[in-house]
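Hi C.,

You asked whether I'd gotten around to modeling the 481-residue construct. I have! Everything is below, sequence then structure, no commentary in between.
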Amino acid sequence: MTHTVLIPTPLRPFTGQQDAVEVEGGTVAEALAALTDRYTDLRRHLYGEDGQLRHFVNVYVNDDDIRYLQREATALNAGDTISIVPSVAGGAAASEAPAPELTNAEVQRYSRHLILPEVGPDGQRRLKGARVLCVGAGGLGSPAALYLAAAGIGTLGIVDFDVVDASNLQRQILHGTPDVGRSKLQSARERLNELNPEVNVETHEVALSSSNALGILKDYDIILDGTDNFATRYLVNDACVLLGKPNAYGSIFRFEGQASVFATQGGPCYRCLYPEPPPPGLVPSCAEGGVLGVLPGVIGTIQATETIKLVLNAKSTLVGRLLLYDAWKMSFRELKLRRNPECPVCGNSPTVRELIDYDQFCGVAPGSAAAPAAAPAVPETTVEDLRARLDSGSIFLLDVREPQEFQICRIPASTLIPLGQLGTRIHEVPSDGREIVVHCKAGGRSAKAVKLLEDNGIPAKNLQGGILAWIDRIDPTLPKY
């Protein structure tokens, strides 16, 4: 019987850089014997002098660990896939170069780590030698970067190209009020150096893309995903899989968060959990849906914890597990994850072997990353035109935001019907000949509302830029959110 043996990246130099090898054998032992007979240099990496599999080598048949089957005597069926993976989930994250020594000052700084048997001096030296990249210096990246720097990660990279906005300060604790308008990377570097001057902070002030991701990520041991959009999230996932870099994943929305560890050898990747992104605009952004300020603190700290555990080669990480957190209910749940053998990126026969156009994959129109991407093309009007005609009584102004947004600020004479209720309350939209203008915060939701009205035979126009444009160009006395 023929079987496929999947070769992990560290062992590919001994198989002529092949990532999969076909072998014959009725058991795992026979298949591995055939493999090492063909590639003799591979034997010493799999077996010790006593002829036994090394303690740090795990072997899986399909998705089952042979330690929980019949070990090397496990019988094989035709077409079975054998995977060789590190014994510790997540693998050795730091480089194999000798870990740097600790100075006396560092011994004092990290003394509470050093007395932990799970860390100790050797573990702290591994942390000092580690290189971690935070993708994003926002809600998730802020707490994660602070705790990684405090923990003594030797080199901490950050990718971001945004500036600090006042609305960030409710959750992005890397930045303060004096930083509003400054580069997030400048603010982050200063805060992290202030917290721990021993940490080398590397900044990458670019938008992560298919053209630069591999070049940036390749120099780091672990990637911490603090992204806020699907296109970048899939980009980070695929780059991590292609490079063999663990991905400490987190995501947040309103009161709920998720965390896991993806892209480890033998473990699932983000695409195993979500093979495809949701249609553009279906899932509101935090700017539209809101987020509890402390939520990214919880999830980002979990990401930092998992990153530290990966560096320390902890035996129990979130690999193969999805942690769900509900801050409002104060509850945690855990779901089991498995690598999908048919995953196009990390599966047995991957079809994605290079980075793709992730905007296209996620259905995002070019140049529209900052706005809802799914807004349909509909008739529009400007805030200047609205202002000139609003007092005439010839316009019915429909606000499709949420009630709490309406309480923050509103355009005079507007009527509130939230977008989610418009379908059942469409009879409340007048048909008395007045022109109907629809608005939301920035124009995305109102465009969908106009389309819904048109589908029901009611002509309407979308207000370009929404109430934010009204505040910028008509009434700057209104509070901006």
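If it helps when you're writing up: The CA atoms of residues 23 and 311 lie 34 Å apart.

Thanks,
B.
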